[in-house]
Records
---
Amino acid sequence: MRIDDVGFDSIFKAPTTLIPAIVQDFTTHEVLMLAYMNREALTQTIKTGRATYWSRSRNELWIKGATSGHFQDVQSISLDCDSDTILLQVIQTGVACHTGEHTCFHKPIDLKE
Amino acid sequence: MRIDDVGFDSIFKAPTTLIPAIVQDFTTHEVLMLAYMNREALTQTIKTGRATYWSRSRNELWIKGATSGHFQDVQSISLDCDSDTILLQVIQTGVACHTGEHTCFHKPIDLKE
């Protein structure tokens, strides 16, 4: 599959067309975070081998780890059946979450309400 | 965490407020699919123990497996740091993908363009 196969126009329309990217630890298979990519972010990720997203809060390209040092070295990228979500397997330097937790998914929801 | 902690107003506005739900195999930790939930879908998921999503194509609640028999029994639900994405760990009956593949993420993207 190539970048042209990715459905960047399928979900978000503004300020740029984004798709969700699930980020999984290559070794442990722990799910670390979900971020968003536009075509440029995916192109940069493939070119550099380091995960690059689109920051919805700052409206700019976001090289994960550029300020924290917590880079993600990409080992594989897969597209889903509908071509509107991607899965990255990464080697995570440091932690994925800005709170200092290893994964962003550290808040359990009670299964009985 | 409880349903009131989930940021259903954060991403999608129409036809209902949706958040992405990453679905992971409880045993193998394989990432199976990404779907979307509104508050009702999450409430039903918690109440029934079976993964229920919002179908963006049919604009209705979607009990995964209702037609295929490929139910997902939910073992855990976690909310991410920003409260706008959830992670489900499930026991998958049959396969997750409508194509017959075990996971929806079966299309590798070349790491060199």
---
Amino acid sequence: MLDQVHAACRDDTSGAPADYIPELAAVAPDSFGLCLATADGLVYQVGDTDIAFSIQSISKPFTYALALADRGIDEVARHIDVEPSGEPFNEISLEPDTQRPSNPMINSGAITATSLITGRDAEDKFERVRRCYSRFAGRELTMDKAVYESESRTGYRNRAIGYMLRSVGVIDVDPDDVVDRYFRQCSIEITCADLAVMAATLADNGVNPKTRERALSTSLTERVLSVMTTCGMYNAAGDWVTTVGLPAKSGVGGGIIAVLPGQLGISVYSPRLDGHGNSVRGVAACRELSKRLELHFCHVTRSARTAIRADYTVAQMPSRLRRTTDDAEVLAAHGERARVYELHGDLLFSGAERAVRAIEGRTAELDALVIDLRRVGEVSRVARDMLEQLQSELVGRGTRVALVDPDAKLGHEVSSLDPDDPRGRVFIDRDTATEWCEDIVLHKHRPPGARPPTSIELAQHPLMAGLDPDYRRRLCAECETRTVARGEVLAERGSPRSGLYLILDGRVRMTFPGTDGRAHRLVTLSSGMSFGEVPMLVREPFVNTVVAETRVRVAVLSPSVFDSLTDDDPRMKLALLQRLAAGAYAQMDMTVRTISANAENY
Amino acid sequence: MLDQVHAACRDDTSGAPADYIPELAAVAPDSFGLCLATADGLVYQVGDTDIAFSIQSISKPFTYALALADRGIDEVARHIDVEPSGEPFNEISLEPDTQRPSNPMINSGAITATSLITGRDAEDKFERVRRCYSRFAGRELTMDKAVYESESRTGYRNRAIGYMLRSVGVIDVDPDDVVDRYFRQCSIEITCADLAVMAATLADNGVNPKTRERALSTSLTERVLSVMTTCGMYNAAGDWVTTVGLPAKSGVGGGIIAVLPGQLGISVYSPRLDGHGNSVRGVAACRELSKRLELHFCHVTRSARTAIRADYTVAQMPSRLRRTTDDAEVLAAHGERARVYELHGDLLFSGAERAVRAIEGRTAELDALVIDLRRVGEVSRVARDMLEQLQSELVGRGTRVALVDPDAKLGHEVSSLDPDDPRGRVFIDRDTATEWCEDIVLHKHRPPGARPPTSIELAQHPLMAGLDPDYRRRLCAECETRTVARGEVLAERGSPRSGLYLILDGRVRMTFPGTDGRAHRLVTLSSGMSFGEVPMLVREPFVNTVVAETRVRVAVLSPSVFDSLTDDDPRMKLALLQRLAAGAYAQMDMTVRTISANAENY
């Protein structure tokens, strides 16, 4: 598409390069480069995008940005207004009532902005400007000495503006020194590709999308873009806003940048200028791109719609802690009292409002909830405040909150130990947060008398308890009881079958290696459950590694005993397999219920 | 937060209601209402939000909108420019060079816009205006006759403007008639809550968020908001844009609307006006809300980040068609050659670019892909073009595309039967689309000689084939072979165990009832697989309903035979259970591999 726009605009060879200094007139007049940089730093380009030229007036928004960062919005506003002037960019005039330059995009405002840059001395001040532009461009920029000297020799009008500004006190330092620095900043060499990255940095709320370095704060980026919107293209701002709809700035070097906030930056280089001093093809290419790609700052996505990526109950998507049949029943019946909300994208007011509203609408039904922030980008101040207030309201009403926030996007590095802490608990993964919520639901809704899984004797283990007494006694006698310390490995993935394990106390975790090299939890089992059945039955190695999550007591029926049962007492072995199948059945039934609860979202 | 802003601004009782007609001066001067309407139609409100007052100049953007819809952008532009004027709103002047009103937000431009509304006669023209405003407000609005009559009696200045416009030919109809209609439109009664919905409609790309009725096209909404940005708040547009950052419009009735495109609308009602004719508290409340909620059109979410909700391979998230062990091996090895992309939210250029880039970057690796559009909202023209071009490029390179697009967001109601159709195949659910992609991968990557599951004899069934010949022969003899027509139910959820079923030909689907009342697919099984094992073993009813997807041939081992084996030949029964366990093992190993592939995204 960029190629097409380039081709469509290439034939217009009207206009001429700026010629008020020889160095500007010396460029190849028909050079034409066009770039589009995305908010994640990819630069699409066509044509002469790596020819160096002088930045000229495109420097203005960036020096204004640095002045705002150095002096603050209020002090800069005392020196420079933000109103469109309706006059040529190099007019020697000030606002009649306030005696300020109308805005920082005309020469008088830009020179004033330059005067506000702080630094030890003239050299340091310019170096700070150069470094600022370089942060926006993502590479070290340098000045074109010939252009600077030429500007400096011939810049009578800008010197006049400097003296005029000094005479009314808008600048209170040596005007020659300021104007000299202004010539230097205008002479910084950039390419069309550099400009695209600079524009994309403005689009990306002030963060350079290639280097990820912050070049400007979010609020100052807003202000710079605002001024570019109303004052960036000199006259005909209204026409530019309606037909292009992108904050922009042009320079007599032949460059133009245009910004679609939050989305992308555009740059054009073509030195032939129109009567306003804007690049002829640059203006045409911006119009054409805006039209074809439907870029307009008033036509944006309804971002609140994507703030909630998914929400579901812990009954629909349980944690990987396998519950006892009794507890699973409680969670099936009451699991809708704990929900998981996965948020997504940058969280500004609208997205936060949508999320908070969705959660608040269910507060009365909830004992606990998980807010998963791992896919969230920027969290604005108001969004953080809203989420914090929501949390303290929820806690006040007795609803517990788990944040999944390993990057501390809400600013809480660690969980408080106080269970009533309004900030809730912070987890680094969703599975553990979900388990925590399930525990809360179980604690509230277990029938009177029911108790969480605890230490049992081998004869009480469901696998044994269901057998007839004779079989039970004989099988129990064949088992060896073993105690394993926390963290110890009971079975390694790939190791040969080593027994049928019946858990009597504690928890074991089955894990598998992820491609990230870390061990991931497949499931956690507790007392009354068993593992190792399938390797035993089919004489295949373990598929998962089994680790003790706590101190664990297990009873183990060895492979040799298990195998010998086939010949010694096939009926007893069949009875045992029947019990194993019953466990598998309960497990499958629970899985089906989980999948069925999810299927409607599928 | 709205309450706080209301309280913070309430104490300012400076200014006075407009008094150029008695009806405007007769309002309760200290009324104060404040609303914020979200892009999904919720109106937060505080104070006097249901007091009716006359819309006055807030009518201007809406009549301009209707004129644009009636006459087109170009014809309207021939009559009205879009540049800020820098003059009072009721100035009797035109642009010196073009002899047009500077913009539609000053009286001369607004009266011109009124003159451009089409209709059979004066009454019809006004009725069309009233209906237009009503679509924006989401309820039938009416005119306040007293205000109209008062305006009509005293509107000398507007009559002067009307005659001036007629004299230079900007309007070519009876100016008295036009100005009369202008008075009527200014006298339409609205409340603060109405204005919030009208503003939210502009925020929502022209669709009323409460009624979901389209009030204006997306591109005309852009234009109206553009003009409000540069010309909406009379003078000091630059200051408004930098400090409030919301396209806005005020009226001398005491109302103000402000719009954050894509996100929300704000309205204020407070009749005391400042020297510019703007509501004193209205301006203060807009500033305060913008500051506290961080609302600024240049500070937006990087929406492209949320365009892809999830992407994964068919190996990570297979379809619910259970594959044979051989086919499952092929999919485990080559499943990364088919991917699913779930898109999310409104799809404009940036989001489409991100999605297309992500997909294109993998084209060389892909045989097939699914693009799931079910969670997508608006699809802009450029996004549709990009997705279509992507599809035809993919098809050109031999990659097959499945769209999940039940609402025809890309405009294709039905799939083409032509397999090379660049538009790809269209599915209504993702599961079927995924299965289609798996079939493509299997077709390309099955080892030479391997064949898809087909009709088998009972002795070839894996459950039988692994047994020793004597057991196999005896068990085969005990089975009854049955043929079932497509759509017939083999087992009902909740029905008692009816046998161990070995599939010899065709496909069966296990389903469960969703809370939506529809039957959802849990899994599809084909020849060589079995079902009914667990009910048989534990004497429990079926958990799922089993339906024939095609004509099906099954062999059934009855419960009575299965049970009697325990006594008749326990060793043969153990051998059979061993084979069932082997099948379970293969199934579990595949599940673990699937979960492990997913876990890193978990």
